[in-house]
């Protein structure tokens, strides 16, 4: 189970988008705090307006039961969940309108943030389809090597999903969006005490990763209450 490295105490990403795509990238650290500008950062999540960040939602928005998944695109356990249990959850509860499902990204590392920026580039309509492609290809793009190679592989996924090259480039270069996403993650993680992925919040109660049979029991109990 992948553990949270940190909840950022401060974050500044001036030029992050350009930094992500240049050849002069430096270390492929898995610590967000190593991003340019963090050493002297004075901002915190409270200084960033995160109201522009949209929750990615499936199912019935008015359902009595809400299941929120917290996941990282670089988390192998999350990829496993999306390859199997998520598809069962979707068939049993999401597509049938029994629950409202919310997917929220967790950023343990820079590649996870980049993957999120690509997934969100297609908006709500394409997000889950792109997320599926990102998880399916996780073992390839996440191990591509240098940061520039990782971003190049993620760009391929975006293009495969039908996002125009100019649109995709703009998304990857959006430093303000990157900072806002990190602040949004920070707020969510602190509020719901997220320390590992995947984690699930079912009608306000947090649960760690579990077999689908256990999740089904919890959801059915919530539906019957």
Q: What would you say this structure looks like, in words?
A:
It is a single chain. With 225 residues, this protein is of the alpha+beta class. The chain has a single domain (2-224), classed as Glutaredoxin, CATH 3.40.30.10. Helices cover 48% and strands 13% of the residues. The protein is built from ten helices and seven strands. It has helices spanning 16-21, 76-83, 85-94, 110-121, 123-136, 138-141, 147-160, 165-172, 175-192, 212-224; strands at residues 2-3, 56-59, 65-71, 99-105, 196-197, 199-202, 205-208. Strands 2-4-3-6-7 form a five-stranded mixed β-sheet, sandwiched between helices. A two-stranded antiparallel ribbon has the order 1-5. Helix 4 crosses helix 5. The longest helix is centred in the C-terminal third of the chain and has 18 residues, at 175-192. It starts with a strand and ends with a helix. Mean pLDDT is 84; it is low at 1-43. May be required for disulfide bond formation in some proteins. Residues 23-224 form the Thioredoxin domain. This is Thioredoxin domain-containing protein.
Structural class: alpha+beta
Number of strands: 7
Radius of gyration: 17 Å
**Residue share in helices?**
40-55%
Helix count equals 10
Task: List the domain count as a whole number.
Answer: 1
Shape: globular
Q: What would CATH call the architecture?
A: 3-Layer(aba) Sandwich
Text of the CATH class: Alpha Beta
Strand proportion, as a percent range, falls in 5-15%
Protein name: Thioredoxin domain-containing protein
Function: May be required for disulfide bond formation in some proteins.
Organism: Sulfitobacter sediminilitoris
InterPro entries: Thioredoxin-like_fold, Thioredoxin-like_sf, Thioredoxin_domain
């Amino acid at each position: 189970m992948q553990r949270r490295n940190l909840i950022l105490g401060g974050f500044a990403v001036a030029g992050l988008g350009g930094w992500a795509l240049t050849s002069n990238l430096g270390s492929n650290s898995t610590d967000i705090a190593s991003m340019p500008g963090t050493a002297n950062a004075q901002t915190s999540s409270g200084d960033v307006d995160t109201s522009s960040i949209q929750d990615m939602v499936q199912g019935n928005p008015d359902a009595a039961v809400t299941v929120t998944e917290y996941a990282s695109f670089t988390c192998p356990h999350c990829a496993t969940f999306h390859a199997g249990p998520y598809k069962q959850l979707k068939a049993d509860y999401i597509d049938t309108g029994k629950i409202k499902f919310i997917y929220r990204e967790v950023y343990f590392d820079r590649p996870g943030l980049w993957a999120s920026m690509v997934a969100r580039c297609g908006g709500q309509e394409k997000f889950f389809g792109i997320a599926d492609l990102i998880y399916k290809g996780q073992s390839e793009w996440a191990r591509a090597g240098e940061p520039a190679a990782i971003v190049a592989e993620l760009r391929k996924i975006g293009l495969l999903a039908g996002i125009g090259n100019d649109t995709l480039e703009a998304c990857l270069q959006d430093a303000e969006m990157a900072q806002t996403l990190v602040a949004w993650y920070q707020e969510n993680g602190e509020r719901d005490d997220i320390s590992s992925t995947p984690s699930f919040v079912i009608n306000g109660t947090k649960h760690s990763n579990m077999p689908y049979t256990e999740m089904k029991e919890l959801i059915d109990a919530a539906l019957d209450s």
